[in-house]
Amino acid sequence: MFAGNRRTKVLTQADYEANILRLRQERDSLAHRLHHTDAYIEQIHYDFKKLQNELKTLEKQKHDLENTHNKTMKDLVHNQKEAIIVTLKEDVKRLQAERDDRDKHIADLKADKDELQSKLGKVSGEKMLDKNPQIADLSDPRRPQKLVEMISILYDNKWTDAFEKSEDKGDEKQICIYLLNIFKECWNYCKETCEQQTKILEQNLLLASENKDGVYALSPGSSTLLTETRKRSAKEMMPNLYEKFKSAKKDIKEDLHTYVESCLEVCWYSAINEPPMHYGFDAEEQADDFRKYTQGGNTVDFVVWPAMHLFINGPILYKGVAQYKN
């Protein structure tokens, strides 16, 4: 059949079947390609998630590394600070040791100076000073004026500490009497020890026997030398004096040993002075030698601290302390 010179092709059954077959093949090919595309997309999703997980892991590792780095830096700074502190402490110890050495050197120089002054004083005024308490030997570091300072410090400081540590001894009056008795025992012990030591030393110096009624004739120079020797050796013998006294007075508790040692020290230097110094404990007979403790009045209640005299019946150097009542 022809229309307008155009020929229309007539499709046969075989052509339809060939087209259908072709279309089915194209469909199968597209389906196969689509299946591969879906698998590819799924692989891409899988790889993406894997990369995300790896990224998270890397970020966590980075965070951990930053924390470790920061901690390491802090530890390093801390260790550096500790090292600096240790170095500074060592420097402080070294400087303290140097200071102590310097102080010791200064003390040694002062001791040498005092010794030279002592020798100079001995040469210039040995006879004048011998048994003359009215003339002060300024070269003597334990002269009466210095002992006044010692007993004042003893009462103001050590006695106060001892009072606080003796509260188990009763009320205020009982504690004051107890501490005064300790001082009195120290004084009596030092006087007796000094007298015995003097007798033995003079005996040995003169090769005298004990049956001469204790009367020895040392020259003024020898007597002064004996006194100076005892004063010089007093510091070395003080530990033995402490131990012997504590052995004899075992009832004194350990908390008061510092007070006892201070009492013994001032008492020993007072006893070996020439002539020996004197302590008064009777505020009724020697009323002018005492001042009030916390209360005045016309009657002595109890004595707190003794009065110091240059020698027995001599001038007062330090007023004692007593509690009065009306």
Compact summary:
The protein folds into 2 domains: 38-129; 137-325, no CATH class.
Please describe what this structure looks like.
The protein is mainly α and 326 residues long. It has 2 domains: 38-129; 137-325, no CATH class. It is built from 5 helices and 8 strands; from the N terminus they run ββαααααββββββ. The strands form 3 sheets. It has a 3-stranded antiparallel sheet, with helices on one face. The protein has a 3-stranded mixed sheet with strand order 4-8-5. β6 and β7 (316-318) form a beta hairpin. α2 runs antiparallel to α5 (257-271) and α4 packs antiparallel against α5 (257-271). It is rod-shaped, with a radius of gyration of 53 Å. The model is unreliable at 1-5 and 125-131 (pLDDT under 50).
Largest sheet, spatial ordering of strands = 3-6-7
Main beta-sheet strand count, sense and barrel state: 3 strands, antiparallel
Mean pLDDT across residues: 85
Beta-strand proportion: 5-15%
Evaluate the radius of gyration.
Answer: 53 Å
Share of helix among residues?
55-70%
**Between the first and last Cα atoms, what is the distance in angstroms?**
167 Å
